[in-house]
Design goal:
By secondary structure, the chain is mainly α. It has 6 helices and no strands.
């Protein structure tokens, strides 16, 4: 029989660092997503031209921005963050599909999707319990 002693301060400190890193990653993602969504909702010329270049109808840019804005707001709210991440995953999946169709690089949307989930995973204990990447049980 083995006895393992874990210093709770060390575990809490490591957990706090992870949560802080998750919040920073999420905050950076949120800032980018909000800027992109607001530019689309306001029909900023850069967003409209960029969307048209990728083949989107210009009259749909605002609708896409509203969908992105709602998804991002849901991601910001802790209680609905997982739903927001799921919706953002769908949005970014659509962005990847458009980039493939347009012959553009798709790495940005792919990496961004990973960052959205990584930030949420690090800051949300319930998600970490739901999807454990390591088995912390000792035998």
């Amino acid at each position: 029989m083995e006895a393992t002693f874990v210093n709770q301060t060390t575990v809490k400190s490591q957990g706090n660092k992870g949560v802080l890193i998750g919040r920073i990653i999420s905050a950076l993602c949120i800032l980018f997503l909000l800027v992109d969504a607001i530019m689309k909702v306001l029909k900023d010329s850069i967003s409209v031209e960029g969307s048209a270049k990728l083949g989107w109808p210009v009259d749909q840019v605002q609708s896409i921005g509203i969908a992105l804005l709602i998804s991002t707001i849901l991601y910001i709210i802790p209680r609905t963050a997982i739903l927001g991440a799921i919706l953002l995953t769908g949005y970014l999946g659509g962005a990847i599909a458009i980039m493939v169709r347009a012959g553009e690089p798709l790495y940005f949307a792919s990496i961004f999707g990973v960052l959205v989930w990584a930030g949420l995973y690090l800051r949300d204990e319930k998600l970490r319990k739901l999807i454990p990447f390591s088995n912390n049980t000792t035998h």
